[in-house]
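Hey there, shall we discuss this one?
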Amino acid sequence: MSERGHTLAFMSDETAPPVRRPALSPSRASDFKQCPLLYRFRAIDRLPEPSSTAQVRGSVVHAALEQLYGLPADQRGRETAMTLVDPAWDRVVAAQPELAAEMEPELRAELLDQARALLSGYYRLEDPTRFDPQSCEQRVEVELSDGTLLRGFVDRIDVAPTGELRVVDYKTGKAPPEARALAEFKAMFQMKFYAVALLRSRGVLPARLRLLYLSDGQVLDYSPDLDELERFEKTLIAIWRAINPPGRQATSVRIRHGCATGVPITRTARCSAGRRRPIPGGRKTRPKAATQVMTRCCTPRSPLHERPKASVSEDRSAARTGASGSRGMSARRRA
């Protein structure tokens, strides 16, 4: 999502120019809300994180669904979808060659069987032969009025003949019952992120945000209103300003409340549990992966971490309230 004046650029993988400007994505915004140190490791230091089996399975399913909707409507039957799993695996391996060597043949076979089961279950939720999406796996960039750049990939965008816009996201994982509420909160944060991007780029309020849970065969529909998305837009702006305060370089970040008291990331830092952790560039050993460092010292938090300065209280307030500012989610779930 990255053109000035709230314009939108749709670009394929082949034509997309190299990304140069730092931008805010749904996942990185969520990381920063959870813990600024985690954001630092993932977005700035880019510490390597091996893909989990669930992540690889999700990538295969997404690639297969993208291929499915590239076919004529009358060829999108269940049997056809099953044949797309192996080509989808090839696409995923082409993007991540290390998977071919890391994954044992038995695990690969099991993963692909699970992907086929998820695709089969998709047909209980929607009939892909009855409509044509406007786009799938769409890379989008948009610059907000204050200069905040949003970037992400939308699983699917549907446009009705009457102009109504629907944003669809596939969820292949299955959160445990105790983590269900948090998982849905993060998912809806992502959907509102895309809704703001489409609102500012097209001038159209998305009529529906749809989450498709393929593992348990459920659909979550939500219809946002304009006031809610305008508040959420302020949340995104506040998060970006907290990451990059005015006058500082876009690649810098300070650990804040819960990790340290505004001390620049240079050597070590204390996270929410008070444990010291090595920071890249310091004297300690470079951590192998962001998740290894954060697993035992950070816990998910909904509000944005507070900044120590009173002068930024306005940004902090917007970031705290905007993301969860749904005035009673009129979402409906159906089995």
